[in-house]
Amino acid sequence: xxxxxxxxxxxxxxxxxxxxxxxxxxxxxxxxxxxxxxxxxxxxxxxxxxxxxxxxxxxxxxxxxxxxxxxxxxxxxxxxxxxxxxxxxxxxxxxxxxxxxxxxxxxxxxxxxxx
Length: 115
What we know:
Distance between the termini: 19 Å
Number of helices: 7
Order of helices and strands: HHHHHHHEE
Mean pLDDT: 74
Number of domains: 1
Structural class: mainly alpha
Oligomer: single chain
Shape: globular
């Protein structure tokens, strides 16, 4: 579902936004308060360096409960330089979320799923 995908993508972005800007309290309050859990459970699965790694069950649990549409609004070019959007989509799909091709978050457009 688009909502689930947007939720996951936004959460990953917010995790990095908070790390860079120190605005965790404001963003977390605006987007349902899930930021600390996302930082703690999912950060290592979406940063640019390194290979795609299947996320932990703890990361998936956090992603499935986050307010992604809200978080997606905070995606900036700075965050896109730190977070691999390809990894975000991989993590979301691995966690069982529907990530529709063509969905946009920031400047990123989700490609079709690989068969």
